[in-house]
Amino acid sequence: MAREDMVAVAGGEFLMGSDHHYAEEGPARRVSVDSFLIDRTPVTNARFARFVEATGYVTFAEIAPDPKDYPGALPEMLKPGSLVFTPPMRPVGLDNWGAWWDFSFGADWRHPCGPASSIDGLEDHPVVHIAYVDAAAYAQWAGKDLPTEAEWEFAGRGGLDGKEYAWGDELVPGGRHMANTWQGQFPHQNTAQDGFERTSPVGSYPANGFGLHDMIGNVWEWTQDFFAPRHDTGQTRSCCVPHNPRGAERDASFDPCDPQIRIPRRVLKGGSHLCAPNYCRRYRPAARYAQPEDSSTSHVGFRCVVRIPA
User: Fold this and answer.
1) 3-state DSSP percent of the chain in helix, strand and coil, to 5
2) In the prediction, which pLDDT does 87 show?
3) What integer pLDDT is reported at residue 168 of this predicted model?
């Protein structure tokens, strides 16, 4: 596939993670990665549409769930659909995500806000409602791969080692919004000071130091890595720097015999347009989130990499 919309990132060593925010981001430690190419922006609706047209691919959200995979699920819920952010009309407790997420039958990448919506006019927005298997299928078709968490974070930092954000240590330097995030009180009040209430066209904000757009905000992005509640310190020794560490070999919480924990989780990176100062302050390169492989939502997308042979 054409690689003109990819950026070459020279490998190197960097400080991965953070000891100052959410527990799962630590411990911060130095790691290294090899050189690679990475998509300049998240995969857009237009690019994903070309993949679907070429292959006939059907996304996870467009397929009715198999009852065997979801024992105990109500039959009326086993229909194609996906989670759509639906802001409440008034303040709600932040401990109940169900107050702002609605499982919408008929929501998918073509219908990002539900069955009555479309991507007309959103061709240059990131594709959403993408489950892990969908991102992996696109990457394989494109002759690419999904990044590891270490590769993603190295690229996301743009050469600013140890900084809070991908552009420095101030969230809104000089009052300028550097990424598509939430302004106001999440989830009921979005002042949209950055100009967007939901996703934005890719490239709407300044590129980071490597020339990459939307590494922070807009949509969360899938990585290959299984989630672990802390970065692995077993590889860290004073004599060496871990090379492209892969975190967990599998999701440690996954238990195929436990109906409550049946779906492995992968690491998402970058935050989204729903990250707010009062909730989910994950608009930082070190931030990470555990996403079940079978979950698609209106704020999760992806980008791809190509590794450069040594």
Assistant:
1) 15, 20, 65
2) 97
3) 96
Contacts of 162 (CB under 8 A, 6+ apart): 15
The answer to whether residues 304 and 137 touch, using CB atoms and an 8 Å cutoff, is no
Q: Where are the alpha helices (DSSP H) in 100-207?
A: 132-141, 149-157
Spell out where 96-200 has E strands: 101-105
pLDDT at residue 237, rounded to an integer:
46
CA distance 110 to 192: 24
Pairing of strands 300-301, 220-226: parallel
The residue type of 293 is E
What's the burial of 240, exposed, middle or buried (CB within 10 Å: 0-12/13-18/19+)?
A: exposed
CA-to-CA distance for 145 and 305, rounded, in angstroms? Answer: 5
SS3 at position 45? helix
Hey, where are the domains in the chain? 1-44+128-310
- CATH tag for 1-44+128-310 (out of 3.40.50.150, 3.90.1580.10, 3.20.20.80, 2.60.120.280): 3.90.1580.10
Mean pLDDT by 10 residues, the chain (310 residues): 84 95 94 97 98 98 91 89 97 96 97 98 98 98 97 98 95 96 97 96 98 98 94 58 65 56 88 97 97 96 92
pLDDT of 74 reads: 87
Name beta bridge partners: 168: 165
Which tokens in the block code for residue 82?
């996906």
Distance CA 171, CA 191 (A): 16
- Nearest 5°: the CA angle 120, 55, 4 is 70
Position 236 scores a pLDDT of 45
